[in-house]
Amino acid sequence: MNTLEFFILALCSVFSISIIEASKIESGFSIDLIHRDSAMSPYYNPSMSTLDLLRNADLRSSSRLKRVSLYLLSNENESPESIIIPNNGDFLIRIYIGTPPVERFAIVDTGSDLSWVQCSPCESCFPQDTPLYESNKSSTFTNVPCDSQSCTLLPTNQHTCGKSEECLYSYFYGDKSFTVGELVVDSISFGSNVTIPKSMFGCGYYNNFTADTSGKPVGIVGLGAGPLSLISQLGDSIGRKFSYCLLPFNSKSASKLKFGNQAIIKGDSVVSTPLLMNSSHHFLYQFNLQGITIGQNTLQTGRTDGNMVIDSGTTLTLLEQPFFDNFLTSMKLTIGIESVEDVPNPLHYCFPFQPDIEFPDTILHFNGANITLNPFNMFILFENNLLCLAVVPSNIQGISVLGNVAQVNFQVEYDLEGEKLSFAASNCTDIINIS
Question: How far apart are CA 349 and CA 173, in angstroms?
Fold first, then answer.
């Protein structure tokens, strides 16, 4: 039995009650996906320049890259959560926990499995602006027994039994951050759209989050492919599908995160590539980048083994070495404009913006799918009229990451049941207005 089959069987037994009660959402639903630097975000700081925002985003992206690197280097029986490095996240959603519901902003993470929040009574917690989740004030809270099938979905070396036979978890991260607590069940809703009556998540009583001291984050909502993620818990009720269409980051509206039938993207422009769901790295969404065309020049990676990860929480696109060097050389030759001497860190190619620049067609070639990127998917314009390439080298051997700048104005559908990732070039602003 492969890894995916095991998870499906486990989930069918563990989450059958949740799936039945959530059957009303088969038609699908959508929620706001809020970029952390937008005016709708609690992180919003209007005094920060585009370069400041990019540098902060790069720190978050570097953190995620280390996390992915350590995860890919771990073996199948080791939990990556014991060595990963969390980051502040680029996107947030509003969630409402318990009965009566209490509003929270949580970080959305397509590379995480377990969702968790800080809980009271907290023995040791990082500062947050909002009150801690109090399970004793929720009429829908229940414990998860340590001998239950649900508890065994946690990594073997990261769960144990408490004094009252409750299921305890411990996640220790590579930057000395950690969350230790109890696996619990409670109602989680997304505004008036939908309620998941029996959602399973971590209730952290001992937490440290060194990556963020702002007091804004309260926890993580995992959208990965693992058995405890929100996607897996919703399971058949959403056809194991979700999608988003990311707006330009200066937009005054929120992007949309869609589930179920609403997540399905249609039309002649839709292209799909296989997701490697049978990979041992089942938390990550991996697929294969065959090559990139820049103008008339096509560069081949020579890879067939799933050399790219898609990640909504990484800002820039990262290309494996030495492929990045060849890509950068080709891009410079095709653009035909010399780079400025002092290129802002972490970027590698910047030049003064000129209205008459002829940008080359840039096409990403995946297994069975080609997508053509717009100039705003490839370049970022700064206040000083400097245009910079939004692609940097990856420090993970053999792995590239498709960042969220490259995904702007694309509908992106994750179909775990069909084991495929689909793209359609779109005007996301129009889609939001129609929705």
Answer: 33
Residues with a known catalytic role: 109, 311
Helices (H), 166-290: 230-234
Q: How far apart are CA 154 and CA 133, in angstroms?
A: 22
Q: Report the amino acid identity of residue 368.
A: G
- At 31, the amino acid letter reads I
Query: What are 376-391's pLDDT values in tens digits?
Result: 999 988 778 889 999 9
Beta bridge partners of 225: none
Token pair 């989680």 in the structure block, residue? 188
Q: Which of 353, 283, 310, 362 is nearest to 50 (CA)?
A: 353
Average the pLDDT over 125-154 and give the result: 91
Q: Which two tokens stand for residue 424?
A: 């359609």
User: Which stretches of 384-430 are assigned E, i.e. beta strand?
Assistant: 386-389, 391-393, 400-402, 410-415, 420-425
Residue 427 corresponds to which amino acid? Answer: N
Q: How far apart are CA 242 and CA 288, in angstroms?
A: 20
**Contact by Cβ (8 Å): 24, 40:** no
What CATH number has the domain bearing residue 360? 2.40.70.10
Residues 160 and 83 reside in one and the same domain? yes
Q: Please state, in angstroms and rounded to a whole number, the distance separating the CA atoms of residues 258 and 246.
A: 12
Last residue of a domain, one of 241, 257, 273: 257
Indicate whether 163 and 308 sit together in one domain: no
φ/ψ (deg, to 5) at 386: -100, 130
Beta-carbon count within 10 A of 120 CB: 14
Quick one: 253 exposed, middle or buried, by C-beta within 10 A (0-12, 13-18, 19+)? middle
- Spatial separation of the C-alpha atoms in residues 152 and 227, rounded to whole Å: 10
Q: Which residues contact 51 (CB under 8 A, 6 or more apart)?
A: 344, 382, 383
- Indicate whether 255 pLDDT > 80: yes
Tokens 């995946």 belong to residue: 366
Question: Mean pLDDT score of the chain, rounded to an integer?
Answer: 81
**pLDDT (tens digit per residue) in 306-351:** 999 998 777 889 999 999 999 999 999 999 999 999 898 888 999 9
The Cα 295–Cα 297 span in angstroms is 6
